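Q: Calcineurin-like phosphoesterase domain-containing protein, please. Structure only.
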Amino acid sequence: MTGRWKSVSLPPAVMLYLCFCLFLAFAVVSGIKQPPRLRFGKDGQLKILQVADMHYGNGKSTGCLDVLPTQLPTCSDLNTTAFVERMIRAERPDFIVFTGDNIYGFDVADPVKSMNAAFAPAIASGIPWAAVLGNHDQESSLSREGVMKYIAGMKNTLARVNPPEVHVIDGFGNYNLEVGGVQGSTFENKSVLNLYFLDSGDYSTVPSIPGYGWIKPSQQFWFQRTSAKLRKSYMSSPAAQKGPAPGLAYFHIPLPEFASFDASNFTGVRQEGISSASVNSGFFTTLVEAGDVKAAFIGHDHLNDFCGRLTGIQLCYAGGFGYHAYGKAGWSRRARVVVASLEKQQSGEWGAVKSIKTWKRLDDGKLTGIDGQVLWSKTPGGARRKKQFGGR
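A: Structure for Calcineurin-like phosphoesterase domain-containing protein:
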């Protein structure tokens, strides 16, 4: 034995195979996995369930707020869980979005346990889901970053803490998801619908500015770059398009522009003030300039559930969902459903997004559907009221 290694020359194909095996082994050991991609179904539709303001506490021991006296003795967080389960069974969504105040930190004994319970119906369903933070999620023993990191590590979630390519960005939970066209179609490798998620903050950290947080310039810059990149890709071969794919934005705290409506120009109800930040950070202008976002969906003000169109963008509340959250006795908790539909091409295959419609369902005996409307249509005159609810 000389103690020296003898060099061995392997064919390139063998070396490539060995490298691939090493990568797979590393991925298994380190837990790396590619998240499933959202995609339109073979029926040419994508259905999204929005759940706003669950305010989940400690489960069965956490009582309800603002319910009828007859409901009070038996009402708890379990009613919120049951409502999520009912909505999943009734609507069979392809994707679920939780838009903040998922747990109510002040009343939570263990934030991890509460998050596990709050998101349990989505996880049990096997349906991909995502979440953003509100202003109450971090008010327990976990920091805002800690809460978002835990959510991003949960089963079946597509949520991310922040975009990996951005080193400095405000908040936690800024990310985008691309929705591919129907598998086997010309659009299967294109994102025909873009989903943007942003952290709208909790409370102002500027002493001279009171009130709630807002979407900061760093987040807006990331959104602008992401939107431009997606536009370029969508308008390039194969199947190059003439304009950007439509987009939807999800965050928690309303923009000041949500106060632009009255009963004559929105669908739904406005029963309380618009609790936006006391400053206007200009994010609505950023959305308008980008030109791709057709609707923004929020929570925060539980007694508002309207959609109003301003400068080509629908601004939509979901209405309060959770039972350990303020509401209005006799006014049912509710959830918003959004369906994007593709157009059929002359070849018979599915193409780009043709329309985006929405409705709400109430947590009553029949899960009553209300306020159906077309939010956006590729053809002029598409934003009309609709009466049908559900279906695929």
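A: Brief note, in case it's useful. The chain has one domain: 39-377.
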